[in-house]
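Progress report, Aim 2. The chain analyzed during this reporting quarter is listed below.
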Amino acid sequence: MNTSPSSSAHDANAVLGTWNLVAFEVEAQATGERRPAFPSPSRGRLIVLPEGIMMALITLAPGPLPKTAADQAAAFNTMIAYSGRYRIEGDQFMTDVDLAWHAGWVGSLQLRTYRFVGERLELISAWAPNPAQPEQMGRGILLWERES
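Predicted structure tokens for the chain:
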């Protein structure tokens, strides 16, 4: 993914609209290595409203329907969904989460650095323990393309 910014990240109005996920990578802090966040292609939509509300949904591309409780539990680990009131300060996109697929996110503050790469929006999470490998620090790098 080309990450050289081509326009100011500080135009908050430019973030408004509906965005489709182009790429979702996880970067390892120790090595700088980037890899896809999910083992197969993912899909996502980000909606940012002028009223100060946002919603993000990311999931794997459609696959077989879960048939067992174990299948349903596994499906839970192949998505991210949250919503809340957001604010922008400088290059920081901050969301006070009020709804989420994971109860641990409700009431949290989700911080993302944002910038534009051409016409695309890049969101970068803060360094945190990697959920798949908690002993390693990582961050998510998401690239979005405007839908509307």
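Helices lie at 69-76. Strands lie at 17-28, 34-36, 42-48, 53-60, 79-89, 92-100, 109-117, 120-125, 128-130, 133-146. These observations will guide the mutagenesis work planned for the next reporting period.
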